[in-house]
Automatic annotation (TrEMBL):
Gene3D superfamilies, alphabetized: Immunoglobulins
Keywords: Glycoprotein, Membrane, Signal
Compartmental location: Membrane
This protein's name: Uncharacterized protein LOC128373263
GO annotations of cellular component type: membrane
Species per Swiss-Prot/TrEMBL record: Scomber scombrus (Atlantic mackerel)
InterPro entries, A to Z: CD2/SLAM_rcpt, Ig-like_dom, Ig-like_dom_sf, Ig-like_fold
Signal sequence bounds: 1-18
Amino acid sequence: MEKLTGCFLLVLLSSVLAEDKFIRDGGTLELSPNVSRSINSIMWKLKGMTVNWERGDTLNYPDTFEGRTTLDKSTGRLEITKMTPADSGNYSVYLNGAMEPKSYTVKVIKEVPQPVVELNPLPCSAESKSCTLLCEGKSDEAVALAEAEPVTYSWKMGDGEWMDGKKSRIITNDKEKKSVETFSCRMKNPISEKQSDAIPNPFSKTKASAHSGVAGSVSVDLLVVVLAAVFGAGF
């Protein structure tokens, strides 16, 4: 029982001391262990690869880190530039042969794509009982949403505040929603944040009256043209 309790505490301690680090694709990783003693040897480990140094020896690292790796021999600080998704993983460090309790879970991700709000079903009109708003990435952008995870979503109605939500939200054709003029969505991940252009509310009274005004204006203008043509032909 004591052995099981000890194992549980060890797992719990490891999870508490693991720090998540999200790095932009192409960006720079910086890891700094907490050092309060003289360092004679340093070894950083990732996926079986090592960056290591011993006093009186040169710095050794895999070919994949060639030309983009810097190690501060007095502090153990590791810097790797031009990070790629292949560099993602768990980084741990050994100082003077002893593993430090803190490790780093590194994930290299891309910025979120430019979001757009799409309506489903596609004709969604004032006669519809409800519609679904989808927060999607622009189709002409090459960034796959999976490469930007973890992504969170939020929504804004008109000039209101941003509210946390999901990728989709259902709007119903009721009195409350008809008073809202526009909807916008926002995508966010640990390294970036972008928001969509606002789209008109298909149930909005303002939108309906604006359309009526435009239609009325067009009808009057057309009547003037027709009358001018008729009277002009008579002279």
